[in-house]
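Posting this for the archive.
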Amino acid sequence: MLRYELKLGNLGESIKQQAKHLGFQVPDEIENRPTLYMWLGFVYEGFHELSTTRNITGFGIVPISWYMINAYCNAYEITGDLRELFHKGIRAMDQVIIENNKSKSK
C-alpha cells in the first residue's frame, strides 16, 4: 500500500476514472490497487502521524525514533502483542520510505 502511494499518490483513482471515461483499459497496477486490512489501519494511520516527527539531515531522512514510537503507544494505550506488531509495522514502513528516498537521491 505504501509503495503504491509513493508511486502514484492520489493519481491512481483519477487515472482509473479517466481511462474508463475515455474507454481505455485501466492499467493493472491501478485496477489491482493493494488494499489495507482493517486491522492494520491503526498502524498505517500511526505511521503517517509519526512521520511528522522524523528528523531530516543533510544526509537525508533518518528513521522514526524508537522513543517516538513508544511515546505514541503510551499515548494511545497500545500494549502487549499489539504494541509489538505496531513497532514492527512502523519499522517496516519506515524502511520503505528511507529506501524510496535513497533511490530518488541517486
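Residues 66 and 87 are 8 Å apart (CA to CA). The longest strand covers residues 56-57.
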